[in-house]
C-alpha cells in the first residue's frame, strides 16, 4: 500500500474505500490529490482482488468542492491527469463499479466526480451544483455530457446555465441520486457495495461494460455486438459461470472466484 498525503485508501476484503483527506479545503483537489487519485484508481482497476470501490470525503461538510481554486489562482499547475478529474471522469475503460458516498457539498468537479460513479448515495444535507459559469469556467470534466444523459436537456440547462444548487432530495427526484440517507451515508454505500459483492464480479463487469457501450450505438447493433465484448466473453467462459448455476441447484450461496 502506498503512503498517500491527500487521500486515504483502505482495502476491506474485495472493497476499496477511497477517502478525500482535505477537509480544511472542503476536499477540493489540488494537483497532488489528482495524482494520488489517479494512482489509487489505477491500482483498483488492475487488482484482481478488488471488485467494488467507494469514494467519499472526510468530515461532514463536503464530498468534494471541485478544483482547488486558490491554487489555480496562483497559476500553479492544476491540470487534471489523463484519466480525468480525480483520476476517474475520463476513465472510460473502468469496468468495475464505483459508488460515490456524498457526505456533503459536491460542487463543480466534485459533482462531476460523483457523476462518473455508477451509484450516488447522498447524505440528506448534501448539495450538488455545477457553478463553473459563475467563475468564468465550464464543466469540462464530463458534467455537460453526463448530466443531460441522466436527467434530460431542460433540467440540465437549468443547472448548468445558472449554477444553481440542488439538494439531495431534488437530486433523487431528478434521477442522478440513487438514495438519500438521513444518517451514516458511508454505511449506506457499504450496503450497496455488499449487494454488488453478492453477485458475480465478472457478471457485474460484463453488465457495466455492456450497458455503457450500448448507450453509444443503436439497439440492434448493441444486441448483436454484445456477444463479442471482452467482458462478456470473459464472463461466459469463467469458472463463476459454472459456479452460479451449481450453487443455485445446490441451494447454497455461490463462492465467487472472479475468474
Largest sheet: 6 strands, mixed
Average per-residue pLDDT, rounded, comes to 94
As for the number of domains, it is 2
Overall shape: globular
Description:
There is one protein chain. 42% of the residues are buried. The protein has 2 domains: 191 residues, 2-enoyl-CoA Hydratase, Chain A, domain 1 (Alpha-Beta Complex); 49 residues, Lyase 2-enoyl-coa Hydratase, Chain  A, domain 2, CATH 1.10.12. The two termini are 24 Å apart. The chain has 11 helices and 10 strands. The mean pLDDT is 94. The radius of gyration is 19 Å and the shape is globular. The longest helix is centred in the N-terminal third of the chain and has 16 residues. The strands form 2 sheets. Strands 1-2-3-5-7-10 form a 6-stranded mixed sheet, with helices on both faces. A 4-stranded mixed sheet has the order 4-6-8-9. A hairpin with a 2-residue loop joins strand 1 and strand 2. It has 259 residues and is α/β, with parallel strands linked by helices.
Amino acid at each position: 500500500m502506498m503512503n498517500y498525503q491527500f487521500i486515504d485508501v483502505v482495502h476491506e476484503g474485495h472493497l476499496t474505500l477511497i477517502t478525500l483527506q482535505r477537509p480544511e479545503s472542503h476536499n477540493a483537489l489540488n494537483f497532488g490529490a489528482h495524482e494520488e487519485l489517479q494512482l489509487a484508481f489505477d491500482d483498483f482497476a488492475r487488482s484482481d482482488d478488488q471488485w467494488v470501490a467507494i469514494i467519499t470525503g472526510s468530515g461532514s461538510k463536503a464530498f468534494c468542492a471541485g478544483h482547488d481554486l486558490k491554487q489555480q489562482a496562483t497559476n500553479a499547475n492544476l491540470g487534471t491527469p489523463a484519466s480525468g478529474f480525480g483520476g476517474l471522469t475520463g476513465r472510460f475503460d473502468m469496468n468495475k463499479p464505483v459508488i460515490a458516498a456524498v457526505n456533503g457539498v459536491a460542487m463543480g468537479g466534485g459533482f462531476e466526480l460523483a457523476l462518473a460513479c455508477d451509484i450516488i448515495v447522498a447524505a440528506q444535507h448534501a448539495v450538488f451544483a455545477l457553478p463553473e459559469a459563475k467563475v468564468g469556467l465550464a464543466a469540462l470534466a464530463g458534467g455537460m455530457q453526463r448530466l443531460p444523459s441522466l436527467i434530460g436537456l431542460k433540467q440540465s440547462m437549468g443547472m448548468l446555465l445558472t449554477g444553481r444548487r440542488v439538494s439531495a432530495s431534488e437530486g433523487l427526484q431528478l434521477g442522478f441520486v440513487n438514495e438519500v440517507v438521513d444518517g451514516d451515508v458511508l454505511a449506506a454505500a457499504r450496503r450497496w457495495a455488499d449487494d454488488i459483492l453478492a453477485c458475480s464480479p465478472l457478471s457485474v463487469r460484463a453488465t457495466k461494460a455492456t450497458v455503457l457501450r450500448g448507450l453509444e450505438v443503436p439497439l440492434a447493433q448493441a444486441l448483436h455486438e454484445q456477444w463479442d465484448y471482452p467482458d462478456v466473453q470473459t464472463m461466459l467462459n469463467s469458472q463463476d459461470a459454472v459456479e452460479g448455476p451449481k450453487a443455485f441447484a445446490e441451494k447454497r450461496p455461490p463462492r465467487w472466484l472472479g475468474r
